[in-house]
Amino acid sequence: MHNDKRRLIKHALLLGAISLLPFSLIGEAQAAETVKVGIIHSLTGTMAISEASVVDAEKLAIEEINASGGVMGKTIEPIVEDGASDWPTFAEKARKLLENDHVAVTFGAFTSASRKAVLPVFERNKGLLYYPTFYEGLEKSPAIIYTGAEASQQTLAAVSWLMANKGKSVYLVGSDYIWPRTTNKLARASVTKQGGSIVGEDYLPLGAIEFSSVINKIKAAKPDIVLSTIVGGSNVAFYKQLKAAGIDSSNQTLMGLAITEEEVTGIGAENLVGFLTCMSYFQSLKNPVNEKFVQAFKARYGQQRVVGDPMAAAYTAVYLWKKAVEKAGSFDVPNVIAASSELTLDAPEGEIKVHKDNHHLWKRARIGTLNAQGQVDVIYESAPIEPNPFPKL
């Protein structure tokens, strides 16, 4: 009798093991058919005006790649996290993506403060981040591919053009964090080197909405040029208050280094007409890759939507990662980074190339005038500029 019981127990256990086996194999097969990637941007808070749309661009690229067979036969599974315009939250979410979700790559961060917050997390975990935003430079990390412009490709190119075409006295105004302060330090040195002068410099807290004091200072200083590094929701208040104070493009040259077509939709084109911006990409660029990108984005998210520089750089980043993975024949970070060296891609902004040493891209600087339709009329375009994140001034 005891032997019969033992036989029954063994039989039941064997049946249980057999019944579970297919499900475990299915689970493994499903896991083998997908590759997890992280997306981390601010979907809430003051930076959501600029960052939420970047997620849309990254998702569009992922959907397109999945529809065409994925990456090395694997479907991309995006895990989206909200950095909430808070730098410690970015670091916390980066840790989750790397340590819990074990993503193969992450596309994200936006402000330099958020990038600085996540950088040690990626370096410590030997992860890989594609960073899409134009920024101040002065950085090189083995864990980051920078698909946005660094200072020599935006700020310094813009200052040189302004000094040659718009005057010599400059008023600097920005949000109070890393990118504006470092950018303006570089701008100050470049203006001085080219015989210009800084007649004022002010910073306001991130998210500030009261600009009357600064605007009064600008009016009193009468600069040839206002160079703005105000970011996020603060731009809505700044440009509306400028207009209310009687400052517009008819009486003041102003360049906004953080104004793309996406910000214009929040600020209102009527508050920006005639002001200048400097980016590597504008929606109005005429080339087949960009026209396809713009059409696909509008078809996916609505004809009223627009695209701007960080969105295009984020979209490009996903395709750049795909090409590097396929060149490497591997999702392993060291192999992908090695395969990225001097990798080229036809992007919405034109052909780009990854620098062999510093993980930045060769990019053009383009200067344009904001028009009444919320788009940009390009008035200057440089040749491709070799990335130099540590410029000597």
Automatic annotation (TrEMBL):
- Any GO BP annotation: amino acid transport
Tell me which UniProt keywords the record has, alphabetically.
Receptor, Signal
Domain of life assignment: Bacteria
Question: Key word Calcium present in the record?
Answer: no
One Pfam family for this entry, by name?
Answer: Peripla_BP_5
Tell me the protein's name. Extracellular ligand-binding receptor
- What PANTHER family does this protein map onto? ALIPHATIC AMIDASE EXPRESSION-REGULATING PROTEIN, PTHR47628
Where does the UniProt annotation place the signal sequence?
1-31
Q: Does the keyword GTP-binding apply?
A: no
- Which InterPro entries does UniProt cross-reference here? ABC_urea-bd_UrtA, Leu_Ile_Val-bd, Peripla_BP_I
What lineage is on file? Bacteria, Pseudomonadati, Pseudomonadota, Gammaproteobacteria, Pseudomonadales
NCBIfam families reported for this sequence: urea_ABC_UrtA (TIGR03407)
